[in-house]
Design a protein that fits this description.
This protein is α/β, with parallel strands linked by helices. 40% of the residues lie in helices and 23% in strands. The chain is globular.
Length: 344
């Protein structure tokens, strides 16, 4: 039986432990009774797991239990749950931080899936997804409790997301799906929840019932468009998209994924083709592909070869099963000169 008063906060980390502990610090300075933070270390190569473990184990918050879990191989949800259940402690603290180390870079989508699966094993019903490169306001947890006590059936919720360095400037105040441009776009002004059809997964308030009804993130998308695709599934299932203006987070935009531009190029182009196949039309998809190819020729900062590869893979694999697309994504990632970021 799931618990309606517990909250888990899922943070996916890839080579960004300094940002991650800053995010955690902004949370644990509040009253975190019945709050369980889950940090998914996505195969980091900078010793992130040990750095976070040392930092959190020596933090001033003595009441906060820190647990470490190690997954040797992720086959599917069932195998993950089997492995993690064997490692869970017998006691159940009122608040905790769980550090979950994955054996490889599984992508932003599947990293969040693993955090959700651990929440389910811990019987936590209320989930907050946060980017690792955000910090939250001082009232964040108190407001979150109020959000989850209300009737939130058929709702995906978020807050106002500001730029970290320009804290009065909005980065996201809701958003919408544009089938002509085949992308999700964010409002930079709060519109009172009129016409929201997309919320960035930088900050989500979501219930485990939603995952059971609609499914988990498409791990094949790996990086970029996974939140757009999920919102489109929710829209098909008659969900509404709500921005709660009292919830405020501050985002260090693209602190990880901008490190290697070819990664952004490949996944954003390829995944928009795959998502567009289902949620747009052939004419707009064709225009988009042509626009991307011409743009990569004219823009010297873009790589035509990477764009061409993304287009070929997008068209070839647009009808593929999730697992096949996931293996293709990993092949690209580990074939790159350096492993890319999988944070936003």
């Amino acid at each position: 039986m799931m618990s309606s008063h517990l909250i888990s906060i899922i943070i996916v980390n890839w080579n960004g432990w300094r940002d991650t502990v800053s995010c955690i610090d902004s949370i644990v300075c509040q009253d975190i009774t019945n709050v369980h933070i889950i940090v998914v270390d996505n195969g980091s190569e900078d010793n992130s797991f040990s750095q976070m473990n040392n930092y959190l184990s020596n933090s001033a918050n003595d009441s906060l239990e820190v647990y470490s879990y190690f997954i040797k191989k992720i086959i599917n949800r069932q195998s993950f749950i089997h492995d993690i259940t064997l490692q869970l402690p017998s006691s159940k603290p009122t608040s905790s931080i769980s550090l979950l180390k994955l054996p490889e870079n599984t992508g932003f989508a599947n990293g969040n899936n693993c955090g959700v699966w651990l929440s389910e094993v811990m019987k936590i019903d209320n989930i907050i997804l946060l980017n690792n490169d955000v910090e939250v306001s001082r009232e964040f947890i108190e407001i979150a409790r109020g959000v989850f006590t209300k009737n939130n059936v058929k709702k995906l919720m978020s807050g106002l997301i500001y730029y970290y360095k320009r804290r009065n400037e909005l980065w996201s105040a809701g958003g919408y799906w544009n089938k002509w441009k085949i992308n999700g776009y964010m409002y930079d002004k709060y519109n009172g929840n009129r016409n929201n059809s997309f919320l960035t997964a930088c900050c989500w308030f979501i219930n485990t019932d939603i995952f059971r009804e609609v499914g988990y993130f498409n791990k094949g998308l790996y990086l970029y468009m996974e939140d757009v695709e999920y919102c489109l599934r929710l829209k098909d299932n008659k969900y509404s998209f709500i921005v709660i203006p009292d919830i405020k987070v501050y985002h260090k935009v693209n602190s990880s994924s901008n490190k290697i531009s070819n990664v952004h190029e490949y996944f954003s182009v390829r995944n928009r083709i795959i998502v567009g196949k289902k949620y747009s039309s052939l004419i707009w998809l064709s225009i988009y592909v042509l626009h991307q190819l011409i743009g990569s020729i004219l823009n010297q900062q873009r790589s035509f070869s990477v764009t061409m590869l993304a287009v070929r893979h997008g068209i070839k694999y647009m009808l593929s099963e999730e697992t096949e697309l996931y293996h293709l994504s990993k092949s690209f990632v580990y074939g790159a000169q350096a492993a890319p970021g999988t944070n936003r």
